[in-house]
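Hey L., structure's done. Input below.
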Amino acid sequence: MLTTADYMGLYDSCVVKSAVDLDHVVQTAIENEVIYQSVGIHVNIPWPVIACIHFRESNQNFKKHLHNGDPLTAKTVHVPANRPAFGSAPFTWQESAMDALTGLWYPRDWSIASCLEFMERYNGIGYQRHGLNTPYLWDYTNHYTSGLFTSDGKMDLSAKESRPGAVAILKTMEAKGVSLEFSSLGLSGPTLG
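Output:
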């Protein structure tokens, strides 16, 4: 497992590859800050982290589950299946997001390194087992070139991701004036790790 120093070293040496679609993703996230904050305040997670997960899991679609991008008109079918745990369809995006973000490992603080570890754990640490940086975090940066799980458990070392990773999104947010000083927010989730 990567250490805090590993995550910070990668983050600090990261160069974002510019792309028009990355600006669009970040602008959409910023425009929906209030929605992300409405969930973040209940689950104690900074809104930009939720925005990154929302993009990676469902392309910023508020009609899909944050868990995996399945439609909100029913419980999830893909991994994790049969979520949200409570309630019945159709679900609101906020109900689903709170379910998706509850009961997880939370970092001791919300430093950048801890946010990156949280998001990687959310998606799964399978890339580390293959000695790769996960595209979930690092696509559109100098720290990812290839290697992709094309389905659950199936790694193709020559396949490439084609969507911005969370770090590219966060760094572009920061360049647009969004503060990434999450540790000072007073957020406190359960420490499970």
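Residues 33 and 47 are 7 Å apart (CA to CA). The mean pLDDT is 92.

-- N.
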